[in-house]
Design goal:
It is a single chain. The chain is α/β, with parallel strands linked by helices. Helix content is 44%, strand content 12%. The chain has seven helices and five strands. α6 links the parallel β4 and β5. α1 packs across α7. The longest helix has 17 residues. The two termini are 15 Å apart. The relative contact order is 0.23.
Length: 181
């Protein structure tokens, strides 16, 4: 059975850098679906894909496919390979902090979130500034608000997120690795 560890946090918290450092140390990772989905849609000519009606559903579908790959042994991989551990940049639950409550999309994300059981959630705390990019549109205040919402979402599903404070990259990675057991 694959042990799945979620790295979550507001935009610009350093999740991707931590994931790359973990990957460099030999751990399998799963990249953030939202950022890749945005980049894909922009490459397809949609400059602001977050304005599309089915934006969150597109991210959800990509996230589901990516998480299924971490369980390839359980879903009939012909090579019978399953990863023993994987670090995932954002879990299904993250979509609930971004989707509008009461919508059909929110309901779909919530339904999928109920099916998931992650081993631990690491809440990567804000680094003290959030730089906007063509993919990241949130400012510092919005990033901090999303961090708060993300913690609440995971707590609502029974998780106790482990907070990873702002610190040098390797220190953050070491804190995560010490908390795997």
């Amino acid at each position: 059975m694959t042990r799945e560890y979620i790295l979550t946090g507001g935009p610009g918290s350093g999740k991707s850098s931590i994931l790359l450092a973990l990957e460099e140390q030999g751990f399998p990772i799963s990249r953030e679906a939202a950022e890749d989905y945005i980049r894909l849609r922009q490459a397809q000519g949609i400059q602001e894909p977050w304005k599309e009606k089915d934006f969150q559903e597109g991210i959800l579908k990509l996230q589901i496919r990516r998480e299924a790959r971490t369980h390839c042994k359980e879903i009939g991989d012909p090579y019978n390979i399953a990863l023993p551990i994987v670090f995932i940049d954002r879990g299904i639950h993250d979509g609930l902090a971004y989707a509008e409550k009461g919508t059909e999309t929110y309901r779909k994300i919530e339904e999928e979130a109920r099916k998931r059981q992650y081993n631990k959630i690491f809440l990567i705390e804000n680094l003290g500034q959030t730089e906007r990019t063509e993919v990241r549109r949130e400012n510092q205040e919005q990033s901090l608000e999303l961090e708060r919402k993300l913690e609440q979402v995971y707590e609502r599903f029974g998780y106790k997120p482990i907070r990873i404070p702002s610190a040098p990259l390797q220190e953050r990675v070491n804190t995560i690795l010490k908390n795997l057991g």
